[in-house]
Amino acid sequence: MTPAEQSLKAAEICRLAPVVPVLVIDDLAHAAPLARALVAGGLPALEVTLRTSCALDAIRAMSEVPGGVVGAGTLLTPADVKAAKAAGATFGVSPGATDRIIAACEDEGLPLLPGAATASEIMALLEKGFTVQKFFPAEQAGGAAYLKSIGSPIPQVKFCPTGGISLKIAPDYLALKNILCVGGSWVAPKDAMLRGDWAAITKLAAEAAALPRA
Ligand code: 3PG
């Protein structure tokens, strides 16, 4: 799968909803109810970060939930890409991008949303064919104002910014023409997961799903 084909798929996934939940799952028992709660609230695209020991099993469990489109985040190595694909991930997200990760996603046929934070990184990914990229860490790297500026010389690259984004500031990003969606963990707070308060998570998801986009 070429980078251009991967970006087409990534764009399709990013357009499903204004927010992609970024999920850190510590307990496998949370995976399916969490996915159901988020999908019920209107957020079908779900990024499960490979930062916990049960993340791959969580991807497997969440992939069974009707309406969910489950991807793997925090891809750092070709082995992560292989494992994510084997677990059923339909897309991958990496905080940055390396030639090895990109080659692995081409080989595995896993659509990648590769991370970039500077004009040169964005241009290097564009040269390879990635027209849809993750902007990370969004708030720390310059926020919505930075992405607006990048959109002048490089309008053909569209972004999913993540890192430090909340319901309150998401509209600043979503108002920009070069933003397809934002990513964030605020829709799945740890305390709500520990309490099993899936209704609270559905409510947060519904608020996020109702955010207007440009
Ligand atoms: C991440 O990979 O941690 C994401 O960017 C989520 O960031 P957040 O927790 O600040 O929303």
From TrEMBL:
SUPFAM superfamilies: Aldolase
Gene3D superfamilies (alphabetical): Aldolase class I (3.20.20.70)
InterPro entries for this protein: Aldlse_KDPG_KHG, Aldolase_TIM, KDPG/KHG_AS_1
E.C. number(s) listed in UniProt: 4.1.2.14
Pfam hit, one: Aldolase
Pathway(s) where this gene product acts: Carbohydrate acid metabolism; 2-dehydro-3-deoxy-D-gluconate degradation; D-glyceraldehyde 3-phosphate and pyruvate from 2-dehydro-3-deoxy-D-gluconate: step 2/2
First-level EC class: lyase
Keyword terms of this UniProt record: Carbohydrate metabolism, Lyase
A GO term for molecular function: 2-dehydro-3-deoxy-phosphogluconate aldolase activity
Signal peptide: none
Keyword Transport attributed: no
Classification via NCBIfam families: eda, PRK05718.1
Similarity field: Belongs to the KHG/KDPG aldolase family.
Subunit structure: Homotrimer.
Name of the protein described by the UniProt record: 2-dehydro-3-deoxy-phosphogluconate aldolase
Species name: Fuscibacter oryzae
